[in-house]
Amino acid sequence: MRSRLLILVAVLVALLAMGCSNKKVMREKDAQIAQLEGQIADLEQENQADKAQIAQLNEELANALSEYETKEQVWREEKDSYTIVSVSDAVLFKSGSTKLSASGRDVVDKIAQVAENHPDREIRVEGHTDNKGILTPYLTKYPSNWELAAHRACAVVHYMVQKKGIDPKRMSAAGYGEFQPIAENDTPEGRAKNRRVVIVIGPRL
């Protein structure tokens, strides 16, 4: 939306800069300028409405997740038109598991409830791990961290769709494995931060 607005403004400026003595051409240019000004006003109104909706969504998430944010188990950030919620894997899953724990279901319940109030938003679930290899007992099921990350992302997606009724057309899942760390992997604390599920809520493409 922002790029469309910038393009329209640029076109409007170009038209205003064009001088022409022909009255017919001038009338046509005036009509084009008036049309562009109307489109710009409409886009600005949509942009303001979108910002208001994002602010409302963030406020609802802050209230819903305050308990977990206080314990530093959930982190939120806003980037452009997207709200990004990162959840520690320790809250969502037991070690080596892709089945949501009781606390995991509680967190996802809270996020799904807020998402349900904003049906025009898209939801992408990303799985992330540290750089430690998969333990031997789990290698046949998860040959690498990609599989583990993807399975965990899909577990959250399936739960939101099957248990919470979120429209599957809004959902997608991705497994990034160990390749998008947010901390160093050379300490237990850093590895713990990297083991996470990220839920991105934003406008539909």
Short description:
The protein is of the alpha+beta class and 205 residues long.
Describe, in plain words, how this protein is organized in 3D.
The protein is α+β, with helices and mostly antiparallel strands and 205 residues long. The protein contains six helices and five strands, in the order H-H-E-E-H-H-E-H-E-H-E. A five-stranded mixed beta sheet has the order 1-2-5-3-4. The mean pLDDT is 88.
Strand-helix topology:
Blueprint (H helix, E strand, L loop, with lengths): L1 H16 L5 H48 L3 E6 L2 E7 H4 L9 H15 L4 E8 L16 H18 L8 E7 L10 H7 L1 E8 L2
Helix pairs in contact: 1-2, 2-4
Q: Distance between the terminal alpha carbons, to the nearest Å? A: 11 Å
Largest sheet: 5 strands, mixed
- Helicity level, as a percent range? 40-55%
Fraction in beta strands: 15-25%
Strand order of the largest sheet: 1-2-5-3-4
E-strand count: 5
Which whole number gives the mean pLDDT?
Answer: 88
Per DSSP, the total helix count is 6
Specify the overall morphology.
elongated
Q: Kindly name the structural category.
A: alpha+beta
Low-confidence stretches: none
> Rg from C-alpha positions?
23 Å
Give the SSE order as H and E letters: HHEEHHEHEHE
